[in-house]
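Late entry, written up from scratch paper. The run itself happened at the end of the previous shift, but nothing got recorded in the book at the time, so transcribing now.
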Amino acid sequence: MNGGNPHIKLPKTKVEVEVTARTGASGGIDYSHTVNSHGNGGAIDLPKDSGPYKIVFELDDKTDLGLRFDAAGPFFCDVSRGGHCPASIDRQQFMVESCEDDELTVVDWNYGEAKILHYQLNVTDQYGVPQAPYDPIIQNGGGVKT
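Output as recorded:
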């Protein structure tokens, strides 16, 4: 996985993100989130040359669906497509470290070009049926921490 990743052996800075799911007016799911550290206008903001981050997403399900992170594919972000409409994970920039029902930990290596990345959190209901995903952004500063 190293493949030129200058941050592979550096300690990771923790970012905590609380994701809340509520039943929307039309019966769908309305998501919101709060970034408890390293936030900028609701986006996760990782400064240039600051090294890798461990992003911990906590799911607060306020629906009657029994939502949980989809263990088969909880996090998508395709850096090569500018992060738009991700359908997989770019393993050079991200790694899913752990996935439990209501907690997902992702490593963002945060190196290379600075860019805004659209990512997707995938969830299922209590029966394992995929539900509408949540798709906020990360402001990756990139660079190399020395």
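The chain has a mean pLDDT of 88.
(Scratch paper discarded after transcription.)
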